[in-house]
Amino acid sequence: QVQLAESGGGLVQAGGSLRLSCAASRGTFSRYTMAWFRQAPGKEREFVAAISWSGGSASYADSVKGRFTISRDNAKNMVYLQMNSLKPEDTAVYYCAAKYYGLVSRYEYDTWGQGTQVTVSS
To answer: Which residues, other chains included, contact 98 with Cβ-Cβ below 8 Å and sequence gap of 6+?
Structure first.
């Protein structure tokens, strides 16, 4: 089973950008649908974006459409989340998630990373 490790979080001012990375080890990365989720203090974890095993299809939460872009590099076993025009409400712990050959959706992810903190100051 694939193992996931996020990086790239930090503190940024509103309107700024960050790129999160998720490194996968073990398993065959190119067989996994990948996603990003986030959890703000006192709130439930929510879906952010997902990408198909080939990278040819992606899905986004309405709150991040047009600002965030998910991508992957199967040769490097990496998935990325480019976050632009960041807002204070984007502040959260961001998690990378995987499911084996699943549909590009917000459901049924069974492998999770430890998370990386993103803080957007106003």
So the answer is: 2, 4, 24, 32, 33, 34, 35, 109, 110, 111
pLDDT at 101 over 90: no
| pLDDT greater than 90 at residue 51 | yes
Q: Which residue in the block uniquely carries the two structure tokens 């950008």?
A: 17
Residue 36 makes CB contacts below 8 A (sequence gap 6+) with 20, 22, 48, 49, 50, 70, 79, 81, 94, 95, 96, 97
Amino acid at 44: E
DSSP state of 107: S
Question: In this model, does residue 42 exceed pLDDT 90?
Answer: yes
Contact (Cβ atoms closer than 8 angstroms) between residue 120 and residue 16: yes
**Residue 51 bridge partners (DSSP):** 34, 58
pLDDT of residue 1: 85
Residue 84 token pair: 């632009």
**And the tokens for 116?**
């990386």
One-letter amino acid for residue 5 of the chain: A
